[in-house]
From TrEMBL:
<dbReference type="Pfam" id="PF08274">
    <property type="entry name" value="Zn_Ribbon_YjdM"/>
</dbReference>
<dbReference type="InterPro" id="IPR004624">
    <property type="entry name" value="YjdM"/>
</dbReference>
<dbReference type="InterPro" id="IPR013988">
    <property type="entry name" value="YjdM_C"/>
</dbReference>
<comment type="similarity">
    <text>Belongs to the YjdM family.</text>
</comment>
<dbReference type="Pfam" id="PF03831">
    <property type="entry name" value="YjdM"/>
</dbReference>
<feature type="domain" description="Protein YjdM C-terminal">
    <location>
        <begin position="47"/>
        <end position="113"/>
    </location>
</feature>
<dbReference type="InterPro" id="IPR013987">
    <property type="entry name" value="YjdM_N"/>
</dbReference>
<feature type="domain" description="Protein YjdM N-terminal">
    <location>
        <begin position="4"/>
        <end position="32"/>
    </location>
</feature>
<protein>
    <recommendedName>
        <fullName>Protein YjdM</fullName>
    </recommendedName>
</protein>
Length: 113
């Protein structure tokens, strides 16, 4: 069994060494051997509009009126969103808003309560 690290981008186990680099044959991601040790320790950090660190389960408040795509509804300023779930992607927060339902928000439009 090889002791090479998994790909930090796609988590593939089929990485190989190429000089001073690791290479993933599935997604073609390359990273240095020094960065391999650092990337395992680093985790993505989500921050709200004020720079406060967000975590799963936090309660946030919307800081701007947000139009809901495909609907005439609006999420008003000051709407409190409880028990958020942080995800990777363009919209970082997965949540349920009372009266509207499940939706995704960007961290730049919320502040931590």
């Amino acid at each position: 069994m090889s002791d090479l690290p998994k790909c930090p981008q796609c988590s593939s186990e089929f990485t190989y060494e190429d000089g001073s680099m690791y290479v993933c044959p599935e997604c073609a991601h390359e990273w240095s051997k020094e960065a391999g040790a650092e990337s395992a320790e680093q985790a993505k950090v989500w921050k709200d509009a004020n720079g406060n660190v967000l975590q799963d389960g936090d309660t946030v408040t919307v800081i701007k009126d947000l139009k809901i795509k495909g609907s005439s509804s609006v999420v008003k300023v000051g709407t409190k969103v409880k028990n958020i779930r942080l995800i990777d992607g363009d919209h970082d927060i997965d949540c349920k808003i009372d009266g509207i339902g499940a939706m995704q928000l960007k961290t730049e439009f919320v502040k931590k309560v």
